[in-house]
Amino acid sequence: MTSTHMIVLPGGGYAAHAPHEAEPVAGWLGEIGVPASVFRYPLNVRHPAPLDALRAEIGRRRAAGARRIGLIGFSAGGHLAGLAALAPGAGPDQTVQFAVLGYAITSMETETYRPARLILLGEDASAQLRRSTSLDALVTPESPPLFVWHTAEDSYVPPEHTYRLASALAASHVPHAVHVFAHGPHGLGLAQGAGEAALWTTLASAWIHEQAAPPG
To answer: Which of 9, 71, 100, 110 is deepest in the core (most CB within 10 A)?
Structure first.
């Protein structure tokens, strides 16, 4: 497991970094035996600045000895994790082997959670730019495995975002796990004490270990 490293990307609408989605998540990963660090990507800047910064961080971690790199992101951090996992243009040392997305913004084509889109893409973003930053449009058969979870009651980022991505993953036969829990608001983080949604960490733990030590 020492050759695997996970980078934690907290949410916050590309305007802030949610504290409960940062060090507590890295701490949980450490408890299950997965080395992890928090990356506070640039805020209130236009695409592709956050993606470029994350790719540079991935390169640094790989140079430090990490052979397999996974990302775990929440809300806007989940969108950024998805971009790094799926978007073309990454250098050989900037690829990721798997990603975990929690209640992620996946589509820049819907009108939900508009503030994050305005920060990242601007008021007059073209249809092409919105499409090219929507995760479902970036999935290919070569995309890395993804674990995606959401709650059906999320009013800030509706579960439609996860359904769109899941459909694209299925269509391209990309290995994936998708869990949509019936109850819970946006921004649960580790979801301790949040009922059934608290199971996501148990489910993700087994999945992450599978990705960190693939057969062969």
So the answer is: 9
Tens of pLDDT, residues 96-147: 999 999 999 999 999 878 899 999 999 999 999 999 999 999 999 999 999 9
- Token output for 2: 């020492």
CA atoms of 147 and 176, how far apart (whole Å): 6
Q: How many other C-beta atoms are found inside a 10 Å radius of the C-beta of residue 16?
A: 12
Whether residue 67 contacts residue 94, with contact meaning beta carbons closer than 8 Å, is answered with: no
pTM over 0.90: yes
Q: Give the Å distances, CA to CA, from 178 to 53, 97, 119, 164, 167.
A: 28, 17, 28, 11, 10
Helix, strand, coil share of the chain (percent; to 5): 40, 15, 45
Rounded Cα distance, 202 and 14, in Å = 28
Angstrom distance (rounded) from CA 102 to CA 90: 23
Q: How far, in Å, CA of 104 to CA of 195, rounded?
A: 20
